[in-house]
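Let us work through a complete example step by step.
Step 1: write down the sequence.
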Amino acid sequence: MLSTNYRNTREIAAFASAVVEGDEFVDLEGGPGRADAALDVPRTGPSPKLASFESLASHDAALVSHVRTLVASGVDLGDIGVLTATNRDALAMITALRTAGFDAIELETYAGAPAPLVKVGTIKRAKGLEFKQVLLARVDGSLLSPAAPGLDEGALERRDIERRELYVGMTRARDGLWVGRY
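Step 2: predict the structure and record it as tokens.
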């Protein structure tokens, strides 16, 4: 097992771990593990930003505004990843970014070559990739809270899977993380 996390900052790793705190899983060797196992994380950085929205329109406008802020601060478009849970939401983010004048590419067609384009796609498609800045778009806010009482076993299992996927998305971020929930 790796004991040092060089990808994320301490703040990103702690934020992501809090999402899956207490979740159990079976590790690669078949033994029980915990998703929130502590690792040494030597790098530090800004705290992740969690923003809540009443509508998808206000969420999307804020995401575009955050991309503008990142670019104005010197972040290259090619170092930004916008990740979603669904293909439908990824297409909506591509449309919002392009409408605002940003060049963007879908992760489905991204071949890995450096390019000054915002990378947009699903969390599943982003597995194994990393970005200096990750914006998790249209996150279901219930995944960031304790489970509602009375969920049946199937619903709890789906929720746990979605929370682990959210964790994967968060840990694609190297230097900065923005989470937009609705």
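Step 3: interpret the result. Residues 17 and 27 are 16 Å apart (CA to CA).
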